[in-house]
């Protein structure tokens, strides 16, 4: 066989750079082309520059050719300059010492006759992000803001914000924000105006925590002349710029209803926009403006239905999901308004699973007496879906509708039909729902038990389904003839059952069955307790030991504990608190709605805005230098995360229950808990009513007597409230505040209103802090962003050690403040509350 001829060596190509030899070759070619005036020199430069960019993209270090690239940039070819600017922007950050070589040619290009080159050079100059070169940026930026070319002015506006991030001092000393503001209000080009608005918002928002002047400038952005100036030009803006303007308008506080209607009339046509982001931003404006106008707010819901439903069916699955998330939020707030459009939420064959799941949740929410039959019929079709998760969700949706008391008879029959399907996951999900239905509708037990009794436990593999079946066997053992024997067979297979949930249910079910049918269950009960006592799972072992000792103590007591008379469950707990839902609604048209959690739960602290859990907003004391100015943000975040805990989670964590006692938990001995752990614990914000506090019984009796026409009762007049004088210089460190907040019971919890002037002044939260300090009420921590702000205040009774602690949550959209007060002396809480509300009502009026 003839030897194989050697293959020719492959030449290096831009897509396959060869490393150091390639870089050296590129440098040599760049030197050769640096002073070349050949007719094809520009074409050759393009080819070489393309190879350099290709090597850079492949990860090869081509910084050695920095000088040659800068020299070759002296050309009028825009394509070559673009590639050179890209190269310089990448390597200037990694090699600041080489960046100085680019200043001369970039400044020269900033004065070029071609506006495209001027704009590209200015953008590259601002993108160097080298602090040592800041002095070279100011003059080109100031010139660029006055450039006759729209493109250059656009670049310069964004460049001012870049300069602020590199050196805030240089940006402010050059008075660039004032130049941006003047350009924003006078430039004829809409995109330049939008870029100026974006840059000013970014600069002033970051600067507001350090400068009162910046805070006042932010307030001017939300003033009526500026807002209506943008609204009148909104059709000229790009889609991105329209969203920026609409976000600004959503934070504007109209002085009267006429302004609200003027804004809505100006934005009416934005609801028909083809871009979903513009439509959602417009809807946010409508919803926030009409929050305090109930009738108009409901009309807004009616008006926005059609645009949202159009967006759901018009875009990509990703866009449909985003719009559906916002629609789902609105459906949960006003389900009746969407009940007639239930067919719009039927699942399509081509819908992704995440869209189908969301549609099932919406169908559950809007079900009522008029559409339950059609919705349940549709959901039953999904139960046989090849997509198992969707089939599960559809069965759960049917059960949730039944728990809402809509057409229960027909739904129970449908669920019982699911048990006849030869699919394990369908049987398991149906058994869980049947258990919940029996807890709410005990009258259906005979029909359900007749079907459930025919199901073999051997055919159920999922723990939650088997646990539901065992619960029914124990709860209705008197109606199921074979219940003791089925339980006995499950006990025999105790070792094969690895789920603690099933074992716990089995212990309780056998106990219930024993109390109802003792002769048939006595042996099974002994075997169950023995197996439970030897179980390695702590919960199973503890429950078995508890039942054993309970039976030893008194079987009659055991009956009352394990199998007491039960009332039907009227309402099943919601997994999300009302406060969390309100926070999500306040952040409409953001990722908050998609994630279904407030933004502070998934964003880094530095991106939450200047007043979101800031650690340096105010001093803790008056006239005393404090090293630690506020309670740590992590503690507040832990308190807010507690809002998402379910009831069972809170019990497991040992939070305070409604009767004021601590939930039983197994805690480590105190000597095993280090000081660091003790200091990191947060005060749980309980909703306890002070037993010694004042009640409203006399007021209620008076209202009842007056309603019956009996006149006011002759009771002695209440003594006037004692005057309360506050210490002008109270001192309370963060640790003591935390400790007191955790120990004291809630004395008062009430809602009060703010004046429109006060709401407007809250654009700068520092103004409220200063106002309350003038009333001898100090702020120890504050946080939040529009429209929600949270403040922690404290005050001290003059001449005494009595402290008053206040949590104040203000919603600027509704002009309401929710106030919680805790006091060392509960008898003075009412007096202090009146004083606090008086000070709060005067905020913004002076």
TrEMBL record:
Alphabetical UniProt keywords: Membrane, Protein transport, Transport
One of the GO biological process terms: vesicle-mediated transport
Keyword DNA-binding: no
Protein location: Endomembrane system
Bias (Low complexity): 1-18
UniProt biased composition (Polar residues): 653-668, 677-703
Gene Ontology, cellular component aspect: clathrin adaptor complex; endomembrane system
Positions of the UniProt region annotated as Disordered: 1-25, 644-704
Record's keyword annotation contains Transport: yes
Domain Beta-adaptin appendage C-terminal subdomain, chain residue ranges per copy: 724-841
Cross-referenced SMART domains: B2-adapt-app_C
Chief site of localization: membrane
Family membership: Belongs to the adaptor complexes large subunit family.
Function: Subunit of clathrin-associated adaptor protein complex that plays a role in protein sorting in the late-Golgi/trans-Golgi network (TGN) and/or endosomes. The AP complexes mediate both the recruitment of clathrin to membranes and the recognition of sorting signals within the cytosolic tails of transmembrane cargo molecules.
Known partners and oligomeric status: Adaptor protein complexes are heterotetramers composed of two large adaptins (beta-type subunit and alpha-type or delta-type or epsilon-type or gamma-type subunit), a medium adaptin (mu-type subunit) and a small adaptin (sigma-type subunit).
Protein name, entry field: Beta-adaptin-like protein
Gene source species: Zizania palustris
């Amino acid at each position: 066989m003839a030897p194989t001829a050697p293959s020719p060596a492959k030449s290096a190509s831009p897509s396959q750079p060869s490393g150091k030899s390639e870089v050296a070759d590129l440098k040599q070619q760049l030197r050769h082309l640096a002073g070349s005036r050949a007719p094809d020199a520009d074409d050759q430069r393009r080819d070489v520059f393309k190879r350099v960019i290709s090597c850079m993209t492949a990860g090869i270090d081509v910084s050695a050719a920095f000088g040659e690239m800068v020299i070759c940039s002296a050309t009028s070819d825009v394509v070559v300059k673009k590639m050179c600017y890209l190269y310089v922007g990448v390597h200037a950050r990694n090699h600041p010492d080489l960046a100085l070589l680019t200043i001369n040619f970039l400044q020269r290009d900033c004065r070029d006759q071609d506006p495209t080159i001027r704009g590209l050079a200015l953008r590259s100059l601002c993108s160097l992000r080298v602090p040592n070169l800041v002095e070279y940026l100011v003059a080109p930026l100031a010139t660029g803001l006055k450039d006759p070319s729209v493109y250059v002015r656009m670049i310069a506006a964004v460049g001012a914000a870049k300069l602020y991030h590199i050196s805030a001092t240089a940006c402010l000393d050059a008075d660039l924000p004032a130049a941006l503001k003047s350009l924003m209000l006078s430039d004829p080009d809409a995109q330049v105006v939008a870029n100026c608005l974006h840059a000013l918002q970014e600069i002033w928002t970051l600067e507001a925590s350090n400068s009162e002047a910046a805070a006042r400038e932010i307030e001017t952005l939300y003033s009526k002349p500026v807002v209506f100036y943008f609204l009148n030009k909104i059709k000229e803006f790009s889609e991105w710029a329209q969203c920026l303007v609409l976000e600004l308008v959503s934070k504007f506080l109209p002085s009267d209803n006429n302004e609200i209607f003027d804004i809505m009339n100006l934005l009416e046509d934005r609801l028909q926009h083809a871009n979903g982001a513009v439509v959602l931003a417009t809807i946010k404006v409508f919803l926030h403006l009409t929050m305090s106008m109930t009738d108009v707010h409901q009309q807004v819901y009616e008006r926005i239905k059609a645009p949202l439903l159009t967006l759901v069916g018009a875009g990509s699955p990703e866009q449909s999901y985003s719009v559906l998330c916002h629609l789902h939020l609105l459906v949960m707030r006003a389900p009746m308004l969407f009940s007639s459009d239930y067919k719009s939420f039927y699942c399509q064959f081509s819908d992704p699973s995440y869209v189908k799941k969301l549609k099932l949740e919406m169908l559950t929410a809007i079900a009522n007496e008029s559409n339950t039959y059609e919705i349940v019929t549709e959901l039953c079709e999904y139960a046989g879906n090849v997509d198992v998760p969707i089939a599960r969700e559809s069965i759960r949706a049917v059960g949730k509708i039944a728990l809402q008391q809509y057409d229960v008879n027909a739904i129970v029959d449908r669920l019982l039909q699911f048990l006849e399907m030869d699919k394990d996951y369908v049987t398991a999900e149906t058994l869980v729902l049947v258990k919940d239905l029996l807890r709410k509708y005990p009258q259906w037990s005979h029909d359900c038990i007749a079907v459930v009794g025919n199901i073999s436990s051997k055919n159920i593999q999922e723990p939650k389904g088997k646990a539901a079946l065992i619960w029914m066997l124990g709860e209705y053992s008197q109606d199921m003839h074979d219940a003791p024997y089925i339980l006995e067979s499950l006990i025999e297979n105790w070792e094969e059952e690895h789920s603690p949930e099933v074992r716990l249910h089995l212990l309780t079910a056998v106990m219930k069955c024993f109390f109802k049918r003792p002769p048939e269950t006595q042996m099974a009960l002994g075997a169950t307790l023995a197996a439970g006592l030897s179980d390695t799972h702590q919960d199973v072992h503890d429950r078995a030991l508890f039942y054993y000792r309970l039976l030893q103590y008194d079987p009659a007591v055991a009956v009352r504990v394990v199998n007491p008379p039960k009332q039907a469950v009227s309402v099943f707990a919601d997994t999300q608190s009302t406060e969390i839902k309100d926070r999500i609604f306040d952040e409409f048209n953001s990722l908050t709605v998609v994630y279904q959690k407030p933004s502070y739960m998934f964003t880094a602290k530095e991106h939450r805005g200047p007043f979101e859990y800031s650690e340096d907003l105010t001093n803790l004391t008056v006239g005393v230098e404090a090293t630690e100015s506020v309670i740590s943000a992590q503690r507040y975040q832990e308190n807010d995360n507690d809002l998402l805990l379910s009831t069972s989670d809170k019990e497991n964590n040992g939070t305070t229950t409604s009767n004021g006692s601590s939930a039983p938990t197994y805690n480590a001995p105190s000597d095993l808990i280090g000081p660091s752990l003790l200091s990191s614990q947060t005060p749980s914000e309980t909703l306890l009513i002070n037993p010694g506090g004042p009640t409203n019984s006399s007021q209620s009796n008076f209202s009842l007597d007056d309603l019956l026409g009996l006149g006011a009762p002759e009771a002695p007049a209440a003594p006037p409230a004692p005057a309360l004088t506050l210490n002008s210089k109270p001192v309370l460190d963060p640790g003591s505040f935390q400790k007191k907040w955790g120990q004291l019971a809630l004395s008062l919890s009430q809602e009060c209103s703010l004046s429109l002037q006060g709401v407007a002044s809250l654009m700068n939260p520092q103004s409220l802090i200063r106002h309350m300090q003038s009333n001898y009420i100090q702020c120890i921590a504050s946080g939040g962003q529009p429209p929600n702000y949270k403040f922690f205040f404290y005050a001290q009774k003059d001449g005494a050690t009595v402290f008053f602690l206040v949590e104040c949550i203000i919603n600027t959209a509704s002009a309401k403040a929710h106030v919680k007060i805790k006091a060392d002396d509960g008898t003075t809480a009412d007096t202090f509350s009146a004083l606090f509300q008086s000070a709060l009502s005067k905020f913004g009026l002076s």
